Predict the structure of D-psicose/D-tagatose/L-ribulose 3-epimerase.
Amino acid sequence: MNKIGFNVLAWSAEMSESLLPILDRLKEIGYDGAEFFIGGSPEESFKMVGKHCADIGLEVTTVTVLSPEENPISPDGAVREKSKERLRWVLDRAADLNSQVLCGPFHSAFATFASRAPMEDEYNWSAEVLHEMGDYAQKLGILLTPEALNRFECYLANTMEQLDYLLTKVNHPNVQAMFDTHHANMEEKKLGSAIELIAPKLGHFHISENDRGTPGSGHVDFDETFATLKKVGYSGWLTIEGFTRNDPAFANSIGVWRNFSEPWDMAENGYKLIREKGEKYGL
């Protein structure tokens, strides 16, 4: 069975002691790991949370985003250098957490648009940054998995075809693809064919409902999803990512204006869904 994770952004984007009982309960439910957002929390808090995860036997993956001031596809070389500085800091914090994977749309700045389609130079600039960061992450034992987002949150990589094109340019064994069923639900014609396209580069996978609520409560076709993951031999993480209004600052930053599901409903029923589909399709 693939390892199952849960992203604690359903509660908070901040690293603090308030996460510890949440992590304990996720472990009790049966989760193999937790996923954390690496933002602006104090450096010492990452080691504290990482130690707690290690103590209770919970593995770790991480996610991050970049601001317009740290945009890897900026025409300004100084801004692109800032993206590398930021990603090095993020990777150091991921190492403090003992993270195995750093995922997210760090191929470009989050929700930053140029009022046009992506240019070849932007793919090249992004690939240059990602390749260099692949070297840095590899030394830390962390896999980089850039993520395709929907058209309302980025323009460089909305589909697996675009992400595959970018990663071919990156050409680094430690930089692979991430697939998120929420974004794919909007941007791909068929989930199965999109998974098959990216399968040779697939390194991380988010199980997310169409509205970011409890997986299985909406219209994402998880039978097609799990059947295809089995077909392509995917053996990585299956991590639930759902959002709430519990952390208002983070929710406001990503346009979450209502609660789609309660966090523990997502965690408990989402876990059951993954176990049931995993057993049904032999993952």
Remarks:
- The first strand starts at residue 4 and ends at 7.
- The chain has one domain: 4-281.
